Amino acid sequence: MKVKCDYCNSLIDEREKVCPNCGATMPTANRTAADQPRTVIELMEWYTARNLPPENVTRFFIGKDVKEPRAFGIYKDEHGDFVVYKNKADGTRAVRYQGADEEYAVNEIYQKLKAEIAKQKSNNAGSATRAPKPEAASTSSCMESFLSLILMFCFSKVGLVVLCLIISFIIAAKDHTPSQGYYRYQGNDYYYQNHSWYSYDSLLDSWDYLSDSDFLDDLITDETSSDYEIYDHSGTDFEDTDWYSDGSDSYSYTWDSDSSWDSDSSWDWDSDSSWDSWDSSSSWDSDW
User: Fold this and answer.
1) 17 assigned to some structural domain
2) Within a domain: 264
3) Do residues 241 and 163 both lie within one domain?
4) Which residue blocks in 131-254 are alpha helix, DSSP H?
5) What pLDDT shows up at residue 260?
6) Count of beta carbons in the 10 Å neighbourhood of residue 267
7) In which element (H, E) is residue 85 found?
């Protein structure tokens, strides 16, 4: 497989780490973190170590050429090529990658699996916040008394002062929040929604959650957003990704800022999560 050099636009064999024409580092070089899987075997071990649901639930088949609809997978074919694929809902196959570079192929399916895990955790967190409490019906009288005390406090002098302070704090915090949309900083494109930042990968033409976004939070506020907001993003629209929210959801979900994307705890499937809670109803009509 040939890949294009970002600097001289020459088509170079994917296995080259440096462009033989201009000496630039190729996009396929050093694309993976030090502790992420680089081989199909390592990816299998990574999947198992994180206590993920069975493959027939997640629909990710590692090392298998599955023919049935609704499946992501990676395998090595009879010619020695590594194939990364997605079987759509109608059974047709879209090949994401086919070539000799195992590390590149594993990274493709690994990134997709990480994004799916994040989406599943987000869905589970939202379901938990919306689930009714079993004891709510039996404690209605206690709740009414509690609400009465709250109302009495709010209309007292002290309560009004506290309420004004809370409202002022909320307004002040909101004033520093940029509006939802696209932003560009130092040549990179980002998208902001629901207090979270997402970054665009031009090599993969895809979006991913940005865990370390403190520099954007400090830089781009409502006062400075006009300096960075853009309207000419080229590539896949963020609105076409699984990350996008149209505002209809009553919850938002972000990772703990102290957590690492590649740490064991970030990617463990919660031990108390039901395997049935994994929703495999992804957009099976798209190519990836």
Assistant:
1) yes
2) no
3) yes
4) 140-154, 157-175, 214-219, 225-228
5) 38
6) 21
7) strand 82-87
Measured CA to CA in angstroms, residue 24 lies from 102, 205, 270 at distances of 22, 21, 43
Q: Indicate if 18 and 99 belong to the same structural domain.
A: no
Has residue 132 got a pLDDT over 60?
A: no
Residue 126 in this model has a pLDDT that exceeds 80: no
Residue 190 lies inside a defined structural domain of this protein: yes
- Give the total number of structural domains in the chain: 3
| DSSP character string of 5-60 | -TTT--EEETT-SB-TTT-PBPTTTT-S-TTS--SHHHHHHHHHHTTPPPHHHH-E
Helix (H) or strand (E) holding 181: strand 181-185
Structure tokens at 7: 């600097």
List the structure tokens of 218.
């400090």
The mean predicted confidence, pLDDT, of the chain is: 77
8 A C-beta contact, residue 265 and residue 138: no
Q: Is the pLDDT of residue 257 over 50?
A: no
Domain span at 214: 158-246
User: Are 108 and 178 members of one domain?
Assistant: no
Residue written as token pair 């006062």: 223
238 and 197 within one domain: yes
Give the C-alpha separation, 124 to 253, whole Å. 10
121 & 49 share domain? yes
Are both 41 and 96 inside the same structural domain? yes
Residue 257 tokens, joined: 């800022």
